[in-house]
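@channel sequence for tomorrow's demo:
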Amino acid sequence: MSDVLANWFVNWPQVHADPAVLLHPVGLLPITLFVLFVVASSPPLLRVMVRVPISGASVWEVGC
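structure tokens (generated this afternoon):
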């Protein structure tokens, strides 16, 4: 998250001057989309990980 914020901070003058910069395939767009994916997928992943025991038993053995 801090990496994305730093990238936006550094590149803001360029984005502000020309918003089409965001459409480049390399740069802020992929980084921002990746962070949105991580943030959106973290709650479901956390719910699944909380249900799995730490003892080493697989999910199939526990019956989740």
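heads up for whoever presents: The radius of gyration is 19 Å.
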